[in-house]
Amino acid sequence: MLAGAYTSTIGLELRCGIVVNRPSIRRVDAPKQVFSVTWMLTGGGVYYECAEGGAETVHALGEGSLLLRRPDRVGRLRLDSGGLQRRCFIDVDPSLAPVVIVALPELVNMPPVTPLPFNTLLLERFAAFVKSLERMEASRSLEYITALASMICALYRLSEASVSQDEPMLKAARLLAAEPVGVTLPDIAERCGVPYGTFRKRFIAAFGQTPGKWRILRRIERAKQELAAGEQIMAVADHLAYPDVYSFAHQFRNVTGLTPKQYQLRNIL
Questions:
Q1: What is the DSSP string of 47-94?
Q2: What is the model's pTM?
Q3: Which residues face 88 on adjacent strands?
């Protein structure tokens, strides 16, 4: 069995790893929106509760189980192991779930739990994926989405052809998250090779938001992560290229309903 491993991107947009839980672990999550994939390698005592067809369903996970949690399927995870657990996991920031769904539309129809027997080669590929993410962790451009979709294809035994070929919209999402706000939306559309009017319509169809709102929300998500990590409010405004702290505070409050200080006091890690 491979040793444990863990890594994440800057801003914790994507976290993945191979972990071992001690026999004494007990945990019950509150119902919440999560986007994650968990592959149980050994052990049991894990339960996933979610609403399906208007009724509450409890799924028991043991060795060889693959759990998919999506933001549109609110559920609760309960760990009551009484024994050693080993599992692989991928956690994606819920705000990026639309990007992953656009990259891999088949996830919309996936059930919460799928059988996946132990496979040494697949485990080694997962370990390589974790390792490769370490080399991408300095990037804020979402370039890891393609690698993530490929890894999920392997776990669910899907063809790589399942990965969306709508490269312009995936590229747009990466650029909007990475480029300074001084780069205009028509500039982004031009880089993606799509006329602006068409670009805007296709982006809304793919992500359910205008490109401008997408960029604002991604910016605010980064701000929330930095504030929760204890960064000074003025420093956060500077990192995210706001003209001044007042502009930052105004937009932050419009989106979250809280001032940056109020958010930080409630959520600081």
A1: EEEEEETTEEEEEEE-TTEEEEE-TTS-EEEEEE-SS-EEEEEEEE-G
A2: 0.71
A3: 18, 39
> Where do the domains of the chain lie?
5-162, 167-208, 212-267
User: 3-class SS at 5?
Assistant: strand
For residue 100, what are the CA distances in angstroms to 22, 49, 127, 142, 144? Answer: 31, 23, 20, 10, 10
> What is the layout of strands, in order, in the sheet containing 65-69?
5-8, 14-21, 85-92, 35-42, 65-69, 113-115
CATH number, domain 167-208: 1.10.10
For the four alpha carbons of 26, 28, 32 and 36, in that order, the dihedral sign comes to positive
Q: Averaged over 132-160, what is the pLDDT?
A: 77
Nearest to 50 by CA among 70, 64, 36: 70
Q: Hey, what are 17's tokens?
A: 């790893």
Whether 5-162 and 212-267 share one fold: the answer is: no
Just give the CATH number of 5-162: 2.60.120.10
Quote the CA–CA distance of 152 and 143 in Å, as a whole number: 15
pLDDT value of residue 26: 63
Q: Which CATH class is domain 212-267?
A: mainly alpha
Q: Give the per-residue pLDDT at 143.
A: 65
Give the DSSP letter string of 175-212.
Answer: HHHHS-TTS-HHHHHHHTTS-HHHHHHHHHHHHSS-HH
